[in-house]
Design a protein that fits this description.
Chain A: Its main location: nucleus. Chain A: Belongs to the GINS1/PSF1 family. Chain A: It is found in: Nucleus. Chain A: Pfam families: PSF1_C (PF24997), Sld5 (PF05916). The complex is a heterodimer. In chain A, helix 3 crosses helix 4. In chain A, 56% of the residues lie in helices and 8% in strands. Chain A is elongated, with a radius of gyration of 26 Å. Chain A is built from five helices and five strands. In chain A, a hairpin with an 8-residue loop joins strand 2 and strand 3. Chain A is mainly alpha-helical. By secondary structure, chain B is mainly alpha-helical. Chain B is built from nine helices and six strands; from the N terminus they run ααααααααβββββαβ. A three-stranded antiparallel beta sheet of chain B has the order 5-1-6. In chain B, strands 2-3-4 form a three-stranded antiparallel beta sheet, with no helix packed on it. Classes of the chains: A mainly alpha, B mainly alpha. The interface between A and B is large, with 43 and 40 residues.
Chain lengths: 211, 306
């Protein structure tokens, strides 16, 4: 039937949303369903042709002065238009959900230390338009941080700070990493008693565990 | 015969407290206070350029400005922003003062910690006795406090940004409609940039992926003539929890909106348009109300959201 494929697209979008809301760790974007989108777009072009055809018909009829069931024609035209609109809604909804997820990804691991790597693993799951969008959005976020709000780390943690000092354990990464407030030698499975503000970035990156 | 001399006593008190305030106060807040006043004076002419129709709660030019007061009004603004369905006006004055203060405090912290380092090396040079006299506690407190304030501002701005994302089309409608209030009032400069660039980006993404395949009459992203309006407006009828706090300066008699009931209690009267029902909002009590009913009271700072 009309718009069935688009419906499938929306159902898939809903599923990804639920998946991401349940495991609240990191948002993972599934593969962009290229084939389905392409099929929907094919349907759209078909509908578009229909519309044009109806228009022509109407024009011919009006010039020839035949008033044969113009109501039926209008109805056909209208149904087609509504289908197009519905397809548009579904497509945009799917795309919007994906772009929202990209936004949250950009905020999550933005500008921490390694900016370039957020185009790494998910690379395959994104279309190139989305990659471009993500890159631009990350740029925008970094610009926002360098503006008036320099002292406030906008992409920092949204959990209110409780104590000044916390215990952290190094998870799996070894090597000297942090150099901003003096060097920490991060040896695997070692524990530190450090200031929270120093390690917030490392926790966000997943180097450290356990507050 | 009872003679009420409260007002005379109050007059006397104002005199003595004025002396007290200048004399005793802990040095930290004193420094902050003096700094604030100079900061405020210096920054005020710049801020005057920004047109403001209504002063947000707490930002009143005639009230005295202190760091503490600013902080509490920031808390109120933050709470309101998080609970309200719409984007509230940006507090330009308050934020510029707050940001300056943060910068100042950061510098001061650095200087103090440098002093600590210097002292430590000195004492080590003299002898290796443990250093107890220079206490780290104030430094820690200052750091923790700074972290907290930074967190609040961060959360506030992030909340606003997410609302900007959500209502970007609606904001554009406001922008084009000249009879509504201007966006400069609603957004800060950075937020303006963010809003413009992000909506541009999203539009480009949608254009590339879907819109260019559609017939030209369906390519608009802000179509309101179709079956469903594509512009997300704030949900004006959202229910919110409010607490009625009354006028800012507690001059109950000066507020024209306040009324008195038979039990000598003050209340605001609002009307719910759908039901045509009057509701009396007593001061210091908590209600669940539709947002559009209490919107004006909220903007005047007479109720807060919780």
């Amino acid at each position: 039937m009309y718009c069935e494929l688009a419906n499938k697209l929306v159902v898939e979008a809903k599923r990804t949303e639920q998946l991401n809301s349940r495991n609240n760790a990191r948002t993972t974007l599934p593969v962009h369903n290229d084939e389905l989108v392409r099929n929907v777009l094919k349907e759209v072009t078909q509908l578009k042709k229909n519309l044009e055809f109806f228009k022509e018909q109407q024009d011919i009829m009006s010039t020839e002065g035949i008033s044969v069931d113009s109501n039926v024609m209008k109805c056909q035209y209208f149904v087609n238009l509504l289908c197009l609109e519905r397809n548009k809604r579904c497509l945009l909804g799917y795309q919007k959900l994906r772009s929202d997820m990209l936004d949250s990804m950009a905020w999550e691991n933005n500008g921490m230390d390694v900016m370039g790597s957020n185009l790494g693993e998910e690379n395959s799951n994104l279309t190139h338009q989305e990659q471009e969008y993500l890159k631009k959005y990350s740029e925008l976020i970094t610009e926002m941080k360098s503006g008036e709000l320099t002292d406030i780390d906008l992409s920092g943690s949204l959990i209110p700070p409780k104590e000044v000092f916390i215990d952290v354990r190094v998870l799996k990464d070894a090597g000297e990493i942090q150099t901003e407030y003096g060097v920490f030698n991060l040896i695997k499975d070692s524990q530190f008693f450090v200031r929270q503000s120093d390690v917030e970035r490392l926790i966000q990156q997943g180097f450290l565990q356990k507050i | 015969m009872d003679v009420d001399i409260e007002d005379i006593l109050a007059e006397l008190n104002t005199d003595s407290t004025a002396v007290d305030y200048s004399g005793n106060n802990n040095p930290l807040s004193d420094i902050a206070n003096t700094n604030v006043s100079t900061l405020y004076n210096s920054s005020y002419p710049d801020d005057k350029n920004i047109p403001t129709n209504k002063n947000p709660p707490g930002v009143r030019s005639n009230t005295k400005i202190s760091a503490e007061q600013d902080y509490s009004s920031l808390m109120t603004l933050w709470r309101n922003e998080r609970c309200s369905p719409e984007l509230l006006p940006y507090p330009h004055h308050l934020m510029s003062r707050m940001l300056m203060r943060i910068q100042d405090q950061l510098e001061r912290l650095e200087i103090i910690s440098m002093d600590f380092m210097g002292q430590n090396s000195n004492t080590i040079d003299n002898s290796n006795k443990p250093i107890n006299n220079n206490n780290m506690l104030p430094l820690l407190c200052m750091e923790a406090e700074l972290e907290r304030i930074k967190f609040i501002i961060r959360s506030y701005i992030r909340c606003r940004l997410s609302k900007i994302d959500k209502f970007s089309l609606y904001l554009r409608q406001i922008e084009q409609d000249s009879n509504l209030k201007s966006l400069d009032d609603l957004l800060s400069k950075d937020e303006m940039i963010y809003y413009q660039r992000h909506s541009e980006m999203i539009l480009k993404l949608f254009n590339d992926t879907t819109l260019k395949h559609l017939p030209p009459e369906l390519q608009a992203i802000n179509d309101t003539t179709g079956t469903i309006s594509m512009i997300d407006e704030p949900d004006w009828n959202k229910f919110v929890f409010i607490k009625v706090i009354g006028p800012n300066d507690k001059m109950l008699n000066s507020d024209p909106l306040l009324k008195k009931d038979s039990n000598n209690k003050f209340f605001y009267e609002v009307i719910i348009p759908e039901l045509e029902e009057d509701v009396e909002l007593f001061i210091d009590s908590i209600y669940v109300m539709r947002y559009n009913v209490i919107k004006n009271l909220l903007l005047d700072g007479k109720v807060i959201l919780i």
